[in-house]
User: What shape does this take?
Amino acid sequence: MANIDVRAAGMADRDLIVRLAFGSMAAQTLRAAVRLRVMELVGDAPRRAADVAVDAGAEHQPMTRLLRALTGLGLLREHAPDSFSVTPAGALLDPGRPDSLTSFVGMFTEPAIVRAWEHLDDSVRTGDVAFDAVFGTDFFSHLAQHPTLSAEFNASMSQAASETAAALPYAFGFGRFTTVTDVGGGDGTLLAGVLTAHPGLAGVLFDTAEGLAEAPRTMARRGLDGRCSLIAGDFFRSVPGGSDLYLMKSVLHDWTDDQAVTILSHCRAVLPPGGLVLIVEPVLPEIVDTRAESDSTDGGITYLSDLNMLVNVGGRERTRKDFEDVCHRAGLSVTSVTPLTEAAPFSLIEAVAG
Assistant: This one.
């Protein structure tokens, strides 16, 4: 019996390695499904692969093979030979849904992102950003030079923020503030969620001109034009004054510690008495506990995100102590760190002047 248990454990270990090695193939399968509009074409009711192939402009047999691979990944269900329907998870790849993740998948399977990962070992050896070496410029400058890719990036960030935008307004006491500035807030998805839930709050959306490209449409669609100002600028130079709450989601992890200190220092410079800086980011534990990871919805994704920051932009995910250190250097003091359980793995990091 002991030998059987050891053999089963060994097979499980091998299965884990094989699944991980096939990870990039699974990602490209998602990319193909999005590009071919598979989920949109299949729909909820069983549909023949031959019909899906015709509508997608594809060959029948290869389409069947793709649909079966998507079934194996849990995104489709095969009811009978050659007949498929979409699972709830697969439905998130339908661009027509408000909670769609198609742009997110498109961005994180984009060759510009993936190519730098091929040089992860170089980044680990040197600490240098692989993206810069591969493309001859930094990631955000590359986006500025490629408007279509920049638009895809903005859309992917909007989709990534939607869950947080639904949870954050009810997880933090916005009612005690008068004006919130969302620093690096992109198209305004997160700020729109906050302002909609708190009618007495005014908003300022601050980002680069490229980052704000879709913001007017977001605010107009939510009826928030009159309550939210859009200001283009560079948070490495300054942050607009006049707010008593400064919000940043998934901003600091894009940058080195020194750069994060610069951004936070500009927030501190305009922070009024009683003001607060609210940082929304994952918080890594001081020690990795694989048992805790297996029980979480994160499943180790935050550590992969940390490596993505390394190879593509030069930033990092941080522990509570890391956040306390960069805040302290910027003249701020972290007063609390609270998991945002409805939008794991994010946490709310509150910092005040101190």
Remarks:
- The longest helix spans residues 147-167.
- The two ends are 61 Å apart (CA to CA).
- The first strand starts at residue 47 and ends at 48.
- The chain is about 50% helix and 15% strand.
